[in-house]
Amino acid sequence: MNSRNHSAGPRSGAPRRPERMADLIREEVAQYLLDGIKDPRVGFVTVTRVKMTADLQIARVYYSAYGTEKEKAETALGLEESLGQIRSHLAKNIRARFTPRLEFFVDEGLENTYRISELLGKASRNENDES
Predict the structure, then answer these.
(1) pLDDT of residue 109
(2) Is the pLDDT of residue 4 over 50?
(3) Do 61 and 47 form a contact (C-beta atoms < 8 A)?
(4) Are the C-beta atoms of residues 67 and 91 closer than 8 Å to each other?
(5) Residue 7 counted as domain residue
(6) How many other C-beta atoms can be found within 10 angstroms of the C-beta atom of residue 48?
(7) Which residues are paired to 6 by β-bridges?
(8) Torsion angle of alpha carbons 85, 90, 96, 101, nearest 10°?
(9) Does residue 126 surpass a pLDDT of 90?
(10) Phi, psi angle pair for 101, to nearest 5°
(11) pLDDT of 29-48, one tens digit each?
(12) At what angle do helices 83-93 and 17-35 cross, to 10 degrees?
């Protein structure tokens, strides 16, 4: 028996439970945002990842929104005001004793990647224009 399994004790599957719950919540929230959300402020949103607290009480949902800065701000407001509806959807569709509280965060890593790609594209076009 390796030390990792030994240190987990009799509930060796327990450390993976937050990961499984996060994957399930990511899928359900993404599906709800695609098909069920009624708030017109919520634009095109991609759920990039979900991180669960170890006690499964809080799900931190990271997302990327497309559009202008104003549209992204509107999307954030729409998501915050739709938290109750989204959580209710989760309660009906996941098998858990407790439905976690949701917190939405813009996935800054993905946003930075988009900005860098955009800047590199502009630099490349400028270099080609000067040639």
Answers:
(1) 78
(2) no
(3) yes
(4) no
(5) no
(6) 17
(7) none
(8) -50
(9) no
(10) -75, 140
(11) 999 999 989 899 998 999 99
(12) 120
